[in-house]
Structure formats: structure tokens, C-alpha cells
Amino acid sequence: MEKLNYQVLENLGYQGYLKKEAPEKAMQFGEGNFLRAFADYFFDCANEKAGWNGKIAIIQPIEQGLTEQINQQEGLYTLYLRGSEKGEKVDAKRVISVVSRCINPYAEYQEAEELACSDDLEYIVSNTTEAGIAYDPGSTLEQCPPRSFPGKLTKLLYARYKAGKKGLVILSCELIDNNGKELEKCVKRHAADWGLEEGFTAWLERENLFCSTLVDRIVPGRIRDEEEVRRLGQENGYDDLLADAGECFGVWMIEGPKELEDRLPFRKAGLNVHVVPDVTPYKKRKVRILNGAHTGFVLGAYLAGQDIVRDCMHNETIKGFMNQMIYEEIIPTLPLDKKELQEFAEAVEDRFNNPFIDHELMSISLNSTSKWKARNLPSFLEYTRAQGRLPACLTMSLAAYIAFYSSDVQERTEDGLVCRRAKGNPYVVKDDAWVLDFYYGHKDDSPEELVQAVLSNEKMWGEDLSGIPGLKGQAVKNLVMIREHGAEAAFGSVLAQ
Questions:
Q1: pTM score, two decimals?
Q2: For residues 22 and 54, is the Cβ–Cβ distance under 8 A?
Q3: CATH code at 291-495
């Protein structure tokens, strides 16, 4: 079977949207699964729905990458967006044709520089992992290319400045706070350390827009199961070594001035991409609702005998507990428009019910102490202050966290804390060593002693929670209920209130 390319699609009589020729308007650092299922998808749709008439040229960010495979397939790859929408199974397929080529700057640096100086270029998109946006003093102007991503970007932007070209919109998709601002800081620091003229720094500030963005789409990645690869190849009529998969939900929040909406092609295409003055509230929405829901119910659900997220959405008690926590306790603490928050929350149940992703509860349980502090504690504290009472579900969630870390503790090993759930099977709690040592040291405590020790541990929570009126007594009561009657019954008791 032949590899995917334009001629193969023509021979097959492919009827889907394709854009074979267009100016290269975007430079993309990163050829990985996420950007190809996220940013490239949105730009591809902008070609189809808004007449953007653009192509993306990818820069391979590290020495080993996918340049050869991408170019062999003429930039084409099949994207599967799979999941659930309003309870209905979705399995959509699209051949993405927005990528023109991939450049390996370690072998073809001049090509990268020529692209950077092109009159057609308008945008730079990046996702070089969380470690990618970091200042590296070992990156120099003389290197071709510089070692780090910010170093590469600085050198390419400097070449564009020297060529007298206009500035660009730079969209950072790395999963760090203020990703665009942090990238800009690194670029300016390189400019200063390399002794580049002040005019370049002035051009950076005057003509370039470094945008912080919030990205949200679960991307399991390239399809690697050999049987599925064969089946899809037979269905499609071609081999695709770059086939990618993501959930059907996707939203891109881009921080910038209002006029940026007119410079980007997404609003005209009706896509779920939004320019906002500050992405911070939207990050809070994602962390508190999506991530907070995960951490809020999965530990208790695991103790109740569940193993993957999707199955939890088919358990009316666990699903009801999660929704009550989201709609009655988390959403009231958030600053955004309530209708927007409810729409985002409605999508959460569909995302968790994705029939194509077996998201294991134990994988979500990793480092739950810091996760509960970051994702759930702020909602708990803000609700308590505003309402003058404890939030029932979040309080139960805290007790479930304690129960998960203390369920029939067996031993403390190098791998983690070995516990046992009601099913009888052992499981390994993984967290910071000091957290595991704490729980192992309190394994023989009474419920009252354990809850007091946990709530008063300022290292865990950043403050002493034991003084919150009624919390200790309710947490003890909930912990005892989980241990004696099971987590599902404990979740159900909250719904009955």
C-alpha cells in the first residue's frame, strides 16, 4: 500500500477538503502530536471555512524528529477526532493539508532563515514542551541553529529584523503560566547577552506580538496499535505513518488586543478560538472545573471499585456527585460569565465519557496532594468564605483523598505507599516522598488523629485547615463512612442531602 500523498488521494477519488498550494504564512516550532491535532487543525479549518489561503512550515525543534516522514507524505496526515458530544459517539476523520513541509534546521538552517525572512510569514506557533521556554546561556548567535528554542527564535527574528520585514504574531502553546510573556523575556535576554543593537529590541516590542495562550484538547497521539493501523490503512487505501488522534473537544484562548481577532483567521471560520484580554480566568476555569472534577472524584471512585474515567460516567452516583460538585460548589466561585461556565462544564461529562480513551484513575491519582491543593482547595475555601458553610461534595472529596492515602496501608517501598482497597487488590500511591512518609507514619492513627494531622499540616496546604469551623468533625465522619460503607455510599449520602 502506498504512503499518503496528494497523488494517492487523487487516484482514490478523495472527496474531502484539500489545499495543495498556498503561501507559507505560519512557522511552527514542533511537529509533535499535540500541535498537529490542535493548532494545525484550526488553521486547516480556517483554509476551508474562511479562505485563509495559508500553509504552515514546520521547524523540527530537536535534532531527531519527523522531518523525513512529514516530507515523504507532502505534509499530509489523517486526523481522527473522537469522543462524545451531548452523549452521542463522535468518530470524525479529516486529512489535514495545511502543512507544506518540515525543515530540519540542524541540516538545513538556511531554509529556516529564508522562511523567517519571507514577506508571506505572519505567525509563529510553538509547543516545545514545558522545558522549552527556558533561558539557556549555552545558546549563542554563532550556532546554526542555537541550542534552545528561545535561542533559535531570537536568531530567526533577528534575521527578519535585519531584512527589514514586518513583525509577527507569536502564539506560544507550551503548558506554563504566561507562556508568551516568558518566551518574550527569554528572547530579549538573548538579544541583550548577544550584544544585538537596541533597534532590534525596539522592533521586537513595537512590531511583534508575543501572545500567551491557553490550549485545551486531550491528544492521545499517534495511532500505534498495529491492528488498528492495518484496519485504518485498508479503509483509507493508503499507509499513514503520521496518523494522529485527539478528542473532539478543543478550545484555544489567545491573550491579545481586540484587533488581533481580525489578524487571525479563526473567528471568521467560526472556530472555538477566542482572543481575550487575559487568559488567567480561563486557565482558572479549566483548572477548577475540568482538572478539579478529575481530582475531586477519582480517588473515591477508585476506592469504590472503578478503574477508568469513562465507567465512572456510567455510574449515576459518581456522576451525580461530580456534577453537584461542579455546578453547586465550583462554578459559584469563578469570575466568568455563568452561562460560559455552564457550557464548559456540560462538555466535561462528554469529555470524561470519551469511548476512545481509557483514562485510568490510577494515572490521575499521581501526586494528588499537590493537585488537590491547586485544583480543589481554592474552590473549597472561596465557597466556605462566601456561603458561611462547608461545601458538601468538596468536603467529601477531601475525606476521599485521605481515605485513598490510608486504605489498609501495607508497606512503604521505593515505588510508593502500598495500600489495599475494598476489592482486595493492592495499589501503589505515588506522591512526593515526604507525603508518603507522612501517611505511612500515621497508618495506625484513629480517624480523628489522622484527620487532625492532615488538616493541620501546613506543608501540605500552605495553611492550617484544622481551624475551619466544622471541617474536622465532618471530615472524620466522612472518612469513617467511606471506610465502613464504601466510597460510593459516601458519595450517595451527599446527594441525599
A1: 0.90
A2: yes
A3: 1.10.1040.10
